[in-house]
Structure formats: structure tokens, C-alpha cells
């Protein structure tokens, strides 16, 4: 990786550039302080806080029903799964018995969200390495999922479909039909992703052996989701701590051992196949029943600490609630996947080129509001 | 065989009817310059539109379709907007070089256009070192890019400019050598004569294997010369924002932008002239109607332009060290071997004459 001239008297000077907060590769308002020697990166220092909205502090002010609406705005590409995390924590604390129908619907929409997030990531990832066409292919398929969401709950991105105790309302009558249409459509389109980008020799040269993260490092940096699994670290929360209806289905945890950008890329693409299979197993037998259990208008959690983690499209999202028995949490903390994944950027990018930094950053799949909250 | 200055002659004769000869000469030159400027400003604009339409076609979109029928006036409107925009600049930029840079780029691309034989008659300037002139002129453009990046007082622009310098200088070798391979076959550098030679079959057929290799090397290196994807290290919007022209706005930006498209046209036009018979029609089917040469020339050129657009909208971008590896470790040795092969073929007379 290090291609500086060895044993030479040539001297070059390190310099410093600001990548972001407005830069096309940082996908939002991330600012990277780069120390560079020519093209070679010496140090990457992420600077956060440009989109900090103090969501955790706002949660201390709000009731539990209101908190769900804030979590949409963290990782906006996994908004449904974020909502689910908070709802599960509250439901566990109240020891509510959630109807099976709710669990299945939550899981189906959660997996659809994961596919939508991964298709967007795939498109943007292609753009980061210079293949501009992928973006539109990704969005074509994501659009179908967004249409399903829009019909179901009226929103395409920040869904607010979950409430503590169930769902806001039942699914739309067309939901099953359109989801099946999407599955049929996406099964023909997903191979296109491979023919357009995965098999491309330039793409493989850009990805393989770039941004290598070993399993030990992945664990010590707290990497989760596809980033951890690309390094061979089995960390799928759905496998190890099943929640909602995930224990009713069989699916494989995608693991790659190379730990480079290409491994992380492959994990995400194969995860889309796995998500499709999960939806296929559930879509035909959504149980009948209620979509809500009655809760008090003012939810008061018992005194104590509660923690629940879920697998968002980016990795492990943990919700920690410390309750004193009042109608708002005393302290609420999110363990967001993006924050830990960003922390290893310096580790994997040092010594590589500017282009490699962009490629590795793309495979970390960062969503900045998730990191800043 | 000096048939090719006909368009200049015609205009000079027309003008000398009512003015002294020296004035007529100058008048003819100015007229031709203006005609070329007008044609290629418009051609550049429509290449932009073509690129947007082609991109849209690859990307499941419609492309520009609001301004004028089928969006035909879109780029005109864009150009008008760019003309009317304020020319901003950075503080502490080297004002003189900063303002000078776009002219290097646009002048070099417009000058290169003057030597192309669009038909037997329609060629402004036919010199006996035409191909050499083209290579020489088109390498001036990189000076403009280097200056622009250096004078902008912007580190992203500087990185882009340095990448451009490295890239263009490396790939010029390949462009030059692959054209040299074909010169071995034609025995002349004059563009009109290169086309005359091809009346016995296009050079890509005459030179068969080495010519095809030379063509492929030329297209790769030519794409790199124009700084287009997959070799768009210079702009690399996901890495450097807009690269060397980050700090340019309005018409100065438009010069860089237009030059990129005209350069693409030039690279394709050289390939048409040297490999695909220029204005010659396939099998001489329209030989009796000489002015149809324009149609064939433009048609072939646009096929190659389309090929370059196809590259751009399909491939990811190479990394800067991979780009240099490709040139110095693969293309250059292959090219040198190819020249030897071509020399052998010409020496032994193994060419295909139709």
C-alpha cells in the first residue's frame, strides 16, 4: 500500500485539507481533517457535530410515544427499525404481550427497509468510485419499496409506523400484493447489480485489498453490521438475539473473512438476497389479529434500566433507557452503529490514497445524522 | 496533390473580386476562423446535449426535454446562463494566470480542429505534418489545466491539476506511439494523404492485427487524454469536488467544459481519420457525391464519441496509481512491440489491400 520512494533523499511536505462538511463523498455534513503527503493519507480525523440535534436530550423531555418520532431522524434510511428498537424497549419494560401480527408486519417492513437502505447504499457506493449509473439503478428499485411504505403508512422515509404497543394502524389491503410484486421484480434486477458493478475489473481493483480491517480490530473498534461481518465477525443481532418475528424464519448470516472493502460490499449485496428470502417466508402467512395492545395514554415505565438492541441496515442499534418511574426517561442513550463504524476510518485509511479513502468510506455506509444524533 | 485548400481558395477568390489581394487573403482567414468558431461552439454545445441524452438513456431517465423540442435548446440556455453569470475568483489567487488558464485550454482545442479534412474540399489548413501538429497542439491544453489548478489557490484544484499533469504526459506517449504505428503504414503525416491512402481499404483493415491493437490503445489513451471517466482523476467529483476548475465560474468554467467536449470530438475525429478512412464512404458507395463526405466523417466520429460516452457511463474510476501502472507497465511496452510488428508487416508487405 505504501508506495513512497524508499531509500531516497527526496523530501515531500505533508499538508492538510478539509474534506467536508460540504463535500460530495461525505454524504452529508461529515468533516474529515486529512493530513496528506501528496496523494497518500497520513491521518484522518473525523470532526462531528454539524448536524447534532441533541435527540437524546430531547428524549428526556418527551413522552415515550413522542420519542418514537425522534428516532426516525437518526438513521433515516432505517427509520422503521429505529422506531422498532424504541418500541421493543418500552414494550419489554412494560412486559406487554405483542400480537403475532404486529411482530410479523414489523419484521417484513424492517427487512424491506434494509433492502431500501442497501439499494441506496449500492447506488451511492458506485458513485463514490466513479460509476455514476449505479445510482439510478439503485433508486429505481428503492422507489418501489418507498411506494409500498407510502401506501401503508403515508410516509416514504420517516415512517412513524410503530408505536409502543403495536402499529399505528393495519397494513393497506394492497400491501401483500405489492410486496410480492416487488420481490418478483427485485429478483430479476439484483443480478444486474452484479453484472454492472461487482464483476467490473476496475471496480474489483479499486475494492480488493483496500481498507482492510481484521477481525480483532473489528471487535476492538466495536464494528457491527456488514462492516463487522465483512471481517468475519459474527455480529448479526437478528441471529444472536432474535426479536419480533425473526425467530420464525430461517436465514443465513452473511460472513466474509477478507475484511477489505470488497468483502463489505459483498456482504451487503448478499444481505439483500437474505432479506428477500425472509420477506418471502413471512409475506404469505401474516397472522390475523389486532395491530395494537391498549396502553395507557401516559406510559410510565417502571423504575429501572432497560436495554434492547436491533440490527439496522448499518449494524447494531442499542437503546438504553434509565427510568425513574415517571412519564419520561431519566436518561436515554442510543448506541448507534455509524458512530463505532466511523471510528475505524482512520485505522483503515492511513497509508492509502485519497481515492481509497473515499472507497473505504463508502463501504462503511455512513449516515451522518445517525452518528451525530 | 494540393486539393485540400479548396475552401480557402474559394473564399479568397470570392473576396478578391472586390478588394485587393492582401486584404482578400486576410479576409478569407478571418471568415474561415469565424466559421470554424461558430460551427464548433455549436458543435460543443450539442455534444454536451448528446452526452446528457446518452447518459439519460443509460440511466433509465429521459434527459433534458423541457427547453425547446426534445430539449434541443437546453444547452443553449445553459450557455446563456453561464455567459450572464458573475466571474468569481478566490482571494490571493494569482489573478493573471488564473484568468489566462481557460484560454490555453479552449484555444488549443479549437486550433486542433482546423486541420481535419471534413470532405475532400472542406479543410481549412492542410500541412504536411498534420498529425504531428494535432498531437503538438492538443498537448498545450494541459498547460491550461495545470495553470488553472495552480493559480486557483485551492488545494483540491491543485491536486486535480497535478493529477492531470501526470496523466496527460503519460498518456500522450501512448497516443503518439499508436498514431506512429499507423504512420508506418501510410508513410505520411499529412491528413489528406492519409485519407487518400485509405482508398484501398481503411487502415484498420489494411493494417489488420497491429492496427486493431493500435486502435484499442489509442481509444484508451485518448479517453485518458480528455480526462474523461474512467480516467477522470482530474475532476473525480467524489474525491476532489470539481478538481482543477473548482474555483472557476461563469464563462471561464464554460471554456473548460466546452474544451472537454471538443477534445472528445478531436480524439474521435483523429481516430476516424487515421483508422476509419475519414470522409471516405464504406466501399465507395457515395464516391460520386463528394459533399456526402461530411456525413460519413461526422457519422464515424459520432460513433466513436458514443463509444467514449459509453465508457464514461459504465465504468468506475481508476485510482491514480492504477492509472499510471496501466500506462507504463502495460500500454507502453505493448505499444512498442506493436510498432515493431507493424514495421515487419509493412516491410514484408503483409498488408490487406482491397
TrEMBL record, chain B:
Source organism phylogeny: Bacteria, Pseudomonadati, Bacteroidota, Flavobacteriia, Flavobacteriales
Keywords: Cell membrane, Membrane, NAD, Quinone, Translocase, Transmembrane, Transmembrane helix, Ubiquinone
Transmembrane segments annotated in the record for this chain: 26-49, 96-117, 129-150, 171-189, 201-221, 253-277, 289-310, 330-350
Species annotation: Lutibacter maritimus
Identification of the protein by name: NADH-quinone oxidoreductase subunit H
The keyword Calcium is annotated on this UniProt entry: no
Superkingdom classification of source: Bacteria
Molecular function terms from GO: NADH dehydrogenase activity; oxidoreductase activity, acting on NAD(P)H, quinone or similar compound as acceptor; quinone binding
Compartment list: Cell membrane; Membrane
Protein's job: NDH-1 shuttles electrons from NADH, via FMN and iron-sulfur (Fe-S) centers, to quinones in the respiratory chain. The immediate electron acceptor for the enzyme in this species is believed to be ubiquinone. Couples the redox reaction to proton translocation (for every two electrons transferred, four hydrogen ions are translocated across the cytoplasmic membrane), and thus conserves the redox energy in a proton gradient. This subunit may bind ubiquinone.
Gene Ontology cellular-component annotations: plasma membrane
Family: Belongs to the complex I subunit 1 family.
Topology in the lipid bilayer: Multi-pass membrane protein
PROSITE patterns: COMPLEX1_ND1_1, COMPLEX1_ND1_2
